[in-house]
Write a structure and sequence with these properties.
alpha+beta; disordered C terminus; 37% strand; four-stranded mixed β-sheet; 2 helices; 79 residues; single chain
């Protein structure tokens, strides 16, 4: 998770919050990248924690397949 703090404790203007949530999935498989993307996206949609925390927050998943970066953005659904 990525957090921020701004303002001043002395001036009683301090604020903090969460900027976003990022996960990394490392997969070793003979399945095609399209199938792995589908599986990761399904996991995000079914995860209560991700769904609860990602409303109004930037959420990003990074993945690798067999040690190589796997681009997920091209298969992402608009929520």
């Amino acid at each position: 998770m990525h957090f921020y703090t701004k303002g001043s404790i002395r001036e009683k203007t301090v604020e903090n919050g969460c900027l976003g949530l990022e996960t990394h999935v490392d997969v070793t498989s003979d399945e095609p990248p399209e199938r792995i993307r589908e599986l990761i996206r399904m996991g995000e949609r079914m995860c209560y924690t991700v769904q609860s925390l990602s409303d109004g927050m930037v959420f990003r998943t990074r993945a690798s397949l067999n040690g190589e970066d796997l681009l997920l953005e091209e298969a992402r659904d608009d929520r």
